[in-house]
C-alpha cells in the first residue's frame, strides 16, 4: 500500500517525472526533474540527494513487480519459463529507464576506478540473483551448491538489461524476439544443468562402497 499525504505525493510527482524523462531517452539530473515537475530544487534534493539516488528509485519502481514475483510450481524449468515470460514485457516497457540505470552504474564504476566517486551511494545491482534463486528453488536438493550457483550465474546472462543490449543493439531483435531467445537459452541451460547433476549423482552412487 502506497503512502499518502503531501510528502508522498511530492515524491511520487518527482519519481513519475524522472521516469518520464528517462523513458524519453534522457538520464536526468535532480535539477532537470525539479524543473520538469515545477518543484523547487531544494525540495527535489530533499527527496533525492543525488542523481544516483533518483535513478535507483526509478529502477526500483520499474522492477518492483519482477522483484515481487514468486512461483510455487514444483518444476524449476517451468518456473524459469514463467519468470521470463512475466519479466520480459516489463523489462521491454521500461527499457529506457533500465538502460539509464546501466549507464549510471557504468559511470560510477569509472569514477570509482579513478578515485573520484566520493561517498555517493552506488547503484544497487544484482536483484536478479534473488529472483533466480526463487525460480530455481526446486533444484536446490538435486544438485550441489556450486552447480546451483553456476546455473544462476548462467541464467543471469539472459535475464536483464544487458541481455537486451546484446539482443536488440547487436542482433536487431524486437522485444518479443529477445524474450524468445532468452526463453530458449534458459531452457537449454536448465536442462543441461539437471542432466549434469543426474550424471554426477549416478557416478557418486556407483562409487560408494557396498
What can you see in these coordinates?
- This protein is mainly α and 210 residues long.
- It has helices spanning 6-23, 30-37, 41-47, 51-67, 76-93, 95-114, 127-135, 145-155, 161-170, 175-207.
- It folds into two domains: 1-49, Arc Repressor Mutant, subunit A; 54-207.
- Helix 1 (6-23) packs across helix 2 (30-37), helix 2 crosses helix 3 and helix 4 crosses helix 6 (95-114).
- It is elongated, with a radius of gyration of 21 Å.
Number of E-type strands: 0
Q: What structural class is derived from the secondary structure elements? A: mainly alpha
What is the straight-line distance between the termini? 59 Å
Helix content: over 70%
Q: What is the number of domains?
A: 2
Q: What is the 3D form?
A: elongated
Instruction: Kindly provide the radius of gyration, computed on alpha-carbon positions and rounded to a whole number of angstroms.
Output: 21 Å
Main sheet properties: none
Mean pLDDT: 92
Strand content: under 5%
Low-confidence residue ranges: none
Amino acid at each position: 500500500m502506497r503512502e499518502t499525504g503531501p510528502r508522498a505525493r511530492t515524491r511520487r510527482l518527482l519519481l513519475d517525472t524522472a521516469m518520464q524523462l528517462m523513458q524519453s531517452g534522457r538520464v536526468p539530473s535532480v535539477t532537470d526533474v525539479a524543473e520538469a515537475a515545477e518543484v523547487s530544487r531544494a525540495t527535489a534534493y530533499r527527496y533525492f540527494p543525488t542523481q544516483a539516488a533518483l535513478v535507483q528509485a526509478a529502477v526500483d519502481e520499474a522492477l518492483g513487480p519482477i522483484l515481487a514475483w514468486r512461483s510455487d510450481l514444483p518444476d524449476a524449468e517451468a518456473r524459469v519459463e514463467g519468470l521470463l515470460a512475466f519479466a520480459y514485457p516489463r523489462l521491454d516497457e521500461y527499457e529506457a529507464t533500465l538502460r539509464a540505470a546501466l549507464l549510471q552504474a557504468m559511470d560510477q564504476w569509472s569514477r570509482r576506478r579513478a578515485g573520484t566517486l566520493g561517498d555517493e551511494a552506488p547503484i544497487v545491482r544484482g536483484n536478479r540473483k534473488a529472483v533466480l534463486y526463487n525460480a530455481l528453488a526446486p533444484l536446490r536438493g538435486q544438485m550441489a551448491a556450486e552447480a546451483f550457483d553456476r546455473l544462476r550465474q548462467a541464467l543471469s546472462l539472459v535475464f536483464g538489461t544487458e541481455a537486451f543490449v546484446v539482443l536488440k543493439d547487436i542482433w536487431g531483435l524486437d522485444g518479443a524476439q529477445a524474450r524468445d531467445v532468452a526463453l530458449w537459452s534458459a531452457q537449454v541451460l536448465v536442462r543441461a544443468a539437471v542432466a549434469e547433476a543426474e550424471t554426477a549423482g549416478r557416478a557418486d552412487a556407483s562409487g560408494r562402497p557396498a
